[in-house]
Design brief:
By secondary structure, this protein is of the alpha/beta class. The chain is built from 20 helices and five strands. It binds adenosine-5'-triphosphate and magnesium ion (MG).
């Protein structure tokens, strides 16, 4: 894979993921699987329908100050150290008389740890994204204060906390406007992956501003919005509107028309849109900003950088801090943070790896209770380095990815072209269309392309390979 794949094709997150090589001792040639994403975070219905339920509040996971009667002196000391780490919660757990000793056999404890590490569990504080949140909040606040439309473009690799931070900012804006005695800000959060066609974004916005306005009319929702924002409005309908277009990469059409029209709405004389576009495509800014600038619309850009090892570790520790027991060896967490940071800095991935390591321990524990077990697994056994290493190789290893990585460079480019061709609902493409995309990619990577005969041959070879992929 060309080394600049990450930059040139950053909007095609799956392909970038495939091309990312993990620089690690134990995972030399590993690459990571296409991450499974929690697509509908901003969709409350989807979130509430998640398989992970809200933690049961009755049973506290906080440490007890009363040591277990059966504990050795050493365990008591260790337990006391734990207690010192959570001094505030001590009294609560003490009153409830809950147990604080970790046991992988305890289903309730296991469930609580998994839940703390689940991607759908929004943390109470979003660590390592404080600056970004302040900048977004200040931008929105500035627009509301001045009653002025504006646009912001947030970009960053998958799992870097963009959607999470946006949710928090929306909350903060709501709290701030209430406290300031301002009228509530109309907020529309759209996950662009949920739109059946890109122009539906305009009907969504119109529906939010003027419900029912779209029906029985000759002009399109975009034209409606353009008219609306070109004329002075009655004061009652001139509230500012915060529009969050998450996964905005999905709005990229060939001519990027929808994207331009969307951002241009913020430049109309009576516009009251505060538009925030969130996307993975770091280079999208370079590709579409110059044109927007020439149209007198240059959104502010905030980039979310991949999490570093220390940040991933801090976030993991923070998420686990709510539990009274220690389920992970510190070194195991560190290993996870190091490997994930080296691969992608994707927090979603780090959480998945930790959960997977926990499951490995769970299986090991269960296995040890069987009649053929080689002696019992200690009840207090925690997730160790070996569990984590196994989870890492399980997560980062994919036969399909390995096969793709072993392909010659031009065949990899064809796969990138195919990914581009089949984005959205498109089911088929001609060799000519594929060749055109292939030539575009070669041009952007400054690689001389293969001729059409060679290209067709490579497609045939790949076609055979795809049959092999399906076998996995
Ligand atoms: N700072 C953080 N603290 C705690 N958890 C985090 C943090 N950042 C990310 N996460 C976890 O990782 C998950 C993925 O984050 P998020 O959905 O915000 O990523 P994203 O940048 O929007 O990714 P994508 O580009 O794929 O949409 C979150 O649901 C959350 O569980
Ligand atoms: Mg997101």
């Amino acid at each position: 894979m060309p080394t600049n794949a990450g930059t040139s094709l950053s909007s095609y997150k799956h392909i970038v993921a495939i091309g990312t090589t993990v620089k690690s001792e134990s995972l030399e040639s590993a690459a990571y699987e296409i991450p499974r994403k929690r697509k509908m975070r901003s969709d409350s219905a989807a979130v509430s329908g998640n398989s992970v339920s809200t933690p049961k509040k009755l049973k506290s996971h906080l440490p007890s100050s009363v040591p277990n009667p059966g504990m050795s002196e050493k365990e008591v000391v260790e337990d006391s150290n734990e207690i010192l780490r959570y001094p505030v919660n001590l009294a609560v757990s003490d009153c409830l008389g809950t147990k604080s000793k970790w046991s992988p056999r305890d289903e309730e404890q296991m469930r609580a740890v998994k839940e703390a590490l689940h991607v759908s569990k929004a943390p109470s504080t979003i660590l390592c994204r404080e600056d970004e949140q302040i900048r977004i909040f200040e931008f929105v606040k500035g627009c509301i204060d001045q009653q002025k439309a504006g646009s912001l473009y947030i970009c960053g690799c998958p799992g870097t906390g963009k959607s999470l931070s946006m949710e928090k900012v929306v909350q903060q804006v709501g709290d701030w406007s209430t406290q300031a005695g301002l009228p509530p800000v109309d907020t529309l959060s759209v996950n662009c992956t949920s739109l059946s066609k890109t122009t539906d974004i305009f009907s969504k916005i119109l529906g939010e501003i003027k419900p029912g306005k779209n029906a029985n009319t000759n002009s399109s929702p975009l034209q409606h919005l353009q008219n609306l924002f070109s004329q002075k409005q009655e004061s009652s309908s001139s509230r500012m509107m915060l529009i969050i277009a998450d996964e905005m990469d999905y709005l990229i059409t060939k001519d990027r028309g929808v994207l331009y029209d969307l951002f241009m709405l913020t430049t109309l004389p009576f516009s009251r849109c505060i538009l925030i576009g969130v996307a993975n495509a770091i280079d999208l800014a370079d590709r579409f900003l110059p044109k927007l600038k020439s149209l007198n619309c240059k959104p502010m850009v905030i980039t979310f950088r991949a999490y570093s090892k220390d940040q991933i570790l801090r976030i993991l520790q923070e998420r686990l801090r709510v539990l009274s027991y220690v389920a992970f060896q510190p070194k195991a967490l560190e290993l996870c943070a190091r490997k994930v940071a080296a691969a992608s800095g994707d927090m979603r991935k780090a959480l998945c790896v930790c959960r997977s390591a926990l499951e490995i321990l769970e299986i090991e524990t269960r296995g040890s209770t069987g009649p053929e077990s080689q002696g019992p697994t200690p009840d207090d056994s925690v997730v160790r380095m070996d569990h984590m290493a196994a989870a890492l190789s399980k997560t980062f290893k994919s036969p399909v990815v390995e096969t793709i990585q072993s392909l010659p460079q031009h065949q990899q480019i064809i796969i990138c072209a195919a990914a581009k061709a089949f984005r959205g609902s498109k089911k088929d493409a001609t060799v000519g269309e594929l060749n055109k995309l292939y030539l575009e990619i070669c041009k952007s990577w400054m690689i001389s392309p293969a001729g059409i005969t060679e290209f067709t041959n490579m497609c045939t070879v790949l076609n055979d390979q795809v049959c092999c992929f399906r076998g996995y």
